Predict the 3D structure of the following.
Amino acid sequence: MTDAVSTATRPGRPAISGVVRRLPEYLMIWVPLLFSAAHLVSFSLWTIWISFTPSTLVPVSGWVGLRNYTAVMASRNWQIAFDNLLLFGSAFVLLSLVTGLVLAILLDQRIRGENVLRSIFLYPLAVSFVVTGTVWSWLLNPGIGIQKLVHDLGWTSFRFDWLVNRDMAIWTIVIAAIWQSSGFAMALFLAGLRSVDADIIKAAQIDGAGPIRIYRRVILPTLWPITITVVVVQLQFAISAFDLVRALTNGGPGIATQLPALVVYDLMFQRGLLGRGAAAAVLMLLILLAVLLPYAAWRYFRRATHA
Amino acid sequence: MPITTTRRRLLAGSVAALALPAFARAQGAVKPRLTAISQWSAGSDGAAITALGKKFEEKGGIWQHSPVPGFTTEMMNKLRAQIIAGDPPACSQLKGPEIAAWSKIAPTVNLDAVVASAGYEKVVAPDLARLHKPGGKWIALPLQIYSTNMLFLSKRAMDKAKADKIPVTWADFNDLAEKMKAGGITYPIANGGTRPDDGQKFEASFAGISPASYRAAIMDLDKKALEGPEIKAAFAQVRKIADWMDPNVGAQPYATNLKRFVDGDMGMMIMGGWAQGVLRNAGFKFDDFMIAPGPSDNTKPVFLLNADAFIFWQRSEPDLQAGQTLMAQLVMDPAIQTMYSQITGSIPVRTDVDLSGAGWSDGQRRTASALKDAVANNQAVLSLAHNMAQENGLTAAMIDVITEYVKNKTITPEQAVTRLAEAVEGAR
């Protein structure tokens, strides 16, 4: 701090040469940062503007107030999408968290072949969501997938037709999404588990705590920051989920598995209603902010108390 | 030194070379050129438009077609980008009421003169012609026609049901489905699970029950017709069809089930005429199945029109303008329409083309004669499921209701009617 101040206040050549010397560093960081910020902010502002115009096939100027918003929120598609988002978001985040944590704890037992297992659990993350969706759409199809396999094995009363069942179809997306991303949660949790100070664990052992008690009272409380990070990352994925659903159910059966991102795409590019699509996109942004702002506040608060 | 003037000569030469095209243009000898975009890149569609391009080149033109593979919407995104950039193609694929909608965002070419000189208007179904002349002027030209409500019958399933009569009315159709079910066919209806697929079941039912009421409700959005007894009966018929379908199909396209259909595990299919081309490409024979117009309660054929078309965008370049005129002449030409439809399995737009020749199939002949009869009886109507009856926004809102109804058996026909009317109200 003091060094920077003194450099700045010192007159003449040395300060300038310092700036020149550090110019490449500034360029490295600030140019891309400014560029992407301008990109993000300008297009967000543009979308917000479009959402208040009567644009249909192409953007036009004009002002319709909140009409696009009321139309979107009154539509059955959006209502179903919103309900689905609540269900999918909470189920997916919670279950992937639990799955990830359990996998991490199991892997943490210094077992043989840990590297291989870790790679296997992490591997789905390397697969594109479109591929995940397509593969699961075959596996879950009752006519050709798991149900048929079990039938062919002899258990003919077995039923697993969630993919074509209106009430259960949203859970197929949860299953596929968990398969894809619980490895991510696992990796973060595993890193957290490994970073717990071995001395604390030893101390707990000396005090006579069993393994379950050590996990519950000593190790897991240190995982809070990681848990919050995983929740936020998974939530923002859940809110913007698009490719997985499009490949797996395409919003069907009927419109039972609509999600906000599908509605935005549908309004903008299939129905040719840019204004309404933009309004739906802004609503999605608001949902994201509702998740991210508390997170930012939490981090700020935490840093303030720790400093 | 004889070559000292090289530079000056070169300059003069290049000026002359540059002036040459302008000179040629002034002479009226401009070579027609056409920039076109469409989604037709592969299969019979790709082959057909490539053949059209060859004909264009044979007439001395330069053919510059850029296909945008995938869904129609992707082609539309490219078109939108080009229009916003101020550089629309000379001609692009577009169909139905979208022609009117898009013609509002960029200037189009008035084709009245070229259409009049070909005497085209007399040989096109009136409802179809209306779509291509929003505001009273021809700005687009239909290229080929499909019916979306053809009835395909599996020969083997008919044998199992011990039936040989092609159903004419919906009552006949329902009887035959019951017979097939009794004959051991678990799913008498072969189906896909896509949105247009569900939409086709509805429009075939509605127009088959009452074409007049279909026209009023779906095409003119008449409030009374939208809540009338005919549309309720149509939803009830859709429920019957849905109960005969394989629920495991999910979101697969109809073509997935073609083999089960031909094998007689599934009996009937309500599908567009294009399925004939798909069946043929998949290696099935014509005597594996029968094709007839979809059921019609007044026994006269009802024709649900789906037509591909080209719209012509205004360009100032003389070579592109010449290309547009040439393209318009080709598209209206009976020989070109014959060539095109024989490749894709559709039928020509012109009602005066003779389909008795060897290049045509029985299915195409039956479709064409159904169109003629339907036009004569005012029973040729525009397809909802394939974006011919309404603009995309309204269509999608209506199909939402229909596809949900097909999949959710707890919705009653009365509820479906109310929801459809609400969806129309909300999307307008």
Remarks:
- The CA atoms of residues 300 and 377 of chain B lie 8 Å apart.
- Chain B has two domains: 30-144+307-348, 150-305+362-427.
